[in-house]
Amino acid sequence: MMIRKPLLASVFVAPAVAAAAFVAPALAQQIAPAPVVTPTAAAPGDAGLSVTVSDDSAWVSLGIDIPGFATNADVPTAASAGSTAQLGRAIAEVITGDLKNNGLFKPVGPDQLPGVPFIQVTQPDFPAWSARGAEMLVHGSVQAAGNGTLTITCILYDASLHQQLVKASWEMTPADWRRSAHKCADTVYARLSGESPFFDSRIAYIAETGPKNHRMKRLAIMDSDGANHRFITTGQAMALTPRFSPDYKSILYLSYLNGSPRIYVYNVETASQRLVAETRNPTFAPRWSPDGRSILYSMAIAGNTNIYRVSATGGTSQQLTDTPGINIGGSFSPDGKKIVFESDRSGSQQIYVMNADGTDQHRISFFGGKSATPEWSPRGDQIAFTHIAGNLRIAVMSVEGGHFRNLTDSWQDEAPTWAPNGRIIQFFRTEKGSGKSTVWQVDLTGRNERRLPTPVDGSDPAWGPIRE
Amino acid sequence: MPSMPNIRVLSGALLLGAAALSLAACGSKPPKELPPEPGPAVSTTTNAPMPQMPAGPVAGTQADFVAQMMGRDTIHFAYDKYGIDPASAVSLQSQATWLQKYPGKRATIEGHCDERGTRDYNLALGERRATAAKNYLVSLGVDAGRLTTVSYGKERPADPASTEEAYAMNRRAVTVAID
Description:
A: Rossmann fold; 6-stranded mixed beta sheet; 4-stranded antiparallel beta sheet; 30 strands; globular; B: 179 residues; alpha+beta; CATH 3.30.1330.60
């Protein structure tokens, strides 16, 4: 096979930069040794790999070659990346960026690989790829339809077995071209890891600038890889603790609009917002139910804070906790039947579970120190939280309160949020002294940790579900 | 207060000064342009220069309050606590005396925390501290309807350092007279 750098290589500034920005910084690379992953007995009919979090045997990352996607005809598109050929390369760059950094794979992107003729997308030159040492091979194509939409096809091959493992296609508007790349990365990730996908998802967070004692805090949103970044608020009113609705149409967040902290629901499509609860009391810590129909918020009355539930369409609130002190936050189990929350009723911040109607409240954290900001995994099996023992660390435990493990070890890491597949946790890290905050993510081994690229400092990340 | 019987029926937003008033008057829809955030009041815990100035602040204003309090506009708290200690009680007595001297004045009490805690909890803890200060002022005879609270959690440290001394300064409730 002829190996030649595509002529268009230098044209793709934007996607190449975006992909480069996604690479973990040197520091994170250093503190992220070989991940702990072992191939285990696959479920019947499933040749996938399982990620285990307690085994120490070394896993050699699986090599995946991802050359630029081919096109049947190189025509202009409305996509930011350019023509179909340019788009094919940009898509491969995004897939490469997605698949690195999670410790499972060693992807090689289009800038280090030969181009693929369109005819070979469905008939790969396996001997040539095997000769290059490829283990897994991703081929794909970009085809423009007359109506302006794009059809992106993604095929995963086992290069040594000469076998197609999975094939998928998506019809996308040019503006959504990056989503097709994330969908392809999700397809590859899911097929090879046996886990659920998570790349095609979005994140709401707080963008921070300015001096520590008067920091500007703005609501902002971005794709899971930091692309398509957008500021929502101007920063004139401090914004905190956002949560994307499950359908991505709304964002719950706290704003000091009009001077006091209140929870608003912001409509992304209409750029309008309303108060979640009409009250003169301060409201904090908003959360969605998994079906998006209910909202949890915490409200302080006469100094005591309790948790309330209200329909997402408004109406009367139902008070779920009623103890003196601070009951705050709350995160639903995936089936919506239980809520994990934080309370200082025992004298310090600890984690409790209750039924969704407020009954059967019982403490589950007994670890020493304080435990705060619990978030139920979308898989239902674990609870991530902030463990406070001098420093603040991100930790996980089982839903019964067992198997406590710290995943991070820094001065101040707080406010975990789960990836849609429950395998990665984002949080924010504050630097001692300067107060600079950055958004990070860590896998459940605690070993693959990296910083997310944000245009300015960031805090309070909130990861939304996989997009339909 | 007989002079302002309707304050409590107004929305909370209206209690927060002229800027909020003018915006709220535009209608009930959320404004597209977000109004300026009311910054936390500057507390003068040291070097209060005003009392010696030849032309002092106008009596009954926030500037006058700050000048008269000489740091007693701010009270401090122990770590993760909201109790009023004896030193704070003295400060609150001074505040109450000033507020009773100007019965038409309203005040906001801002509650703050040090940075050693989670964001959500500190918002609630700051509210608890501000409420503790408010309740104490009410116990001294200040009408509750004249006092509002607002928590900034750990978001607005008075001293940005990450030291025990700074943390002690930052665990505070600041009373601000509304001009």
